[in-house]
Design brief:
With 119 residues, the chain is mainly α. It has four helices and no strands.
Length: 119
């Protein structure tokens, strides 16, 4: 199992090597520009993922049930791209994504406890 904190560190090292300008943040304006970049990039990747789901659904529903494995491969790639931008966003916001996830999971367990099936 790979630790998310480790992945965040690897991503930060990659970003600093290949995109050092992104991390040159000396003002609130620089921070907001980096945050906007991540939001736009993340939205783009989610859009690409969604578009592939739409195409897979269209092909499956309208072409005699053909299920395209190449679309699934592309979906996997897009999902990883989304994850990369989530890691970058977590680094930018200075959060430990693993710890934050566990806190949110506990919150959601309480929030959705009424949805839990009994029996």
């Amino acid at each position: 199992m790979v630790d998310i904190k480790y992945l965040q560190m690897l991503q930060k090292e990659f970003d600093l090597e290949f995109f050092p300008g992104f991390w040159r943040i000396s003002s609130k304006e620089d921070f907001l520009n980096s945050l906007k970049h991540i939001a736009i990039a993340l939205s783009g990747e989610v859009g690409e993922f969604s578009n592939l789901v739409k195409k897979l659904d269209r092909v499956f529903m309208n072409k005699g049930g053909e299920f395209r494995e190449d679309y699934l491969d592309s979906l996997r790639e897009e999902l990883v791209d989304i994850f990369i931008y989530v890691l970058i966003g977590a680094n930018l916001l200075g959060i430990d994504l693993g710890e934050s996830y566990l806190e949110r999971l506990e919150f959601n367990k309480r929030r959705f406890s009424s949805f839990k099936e009994h029996g």
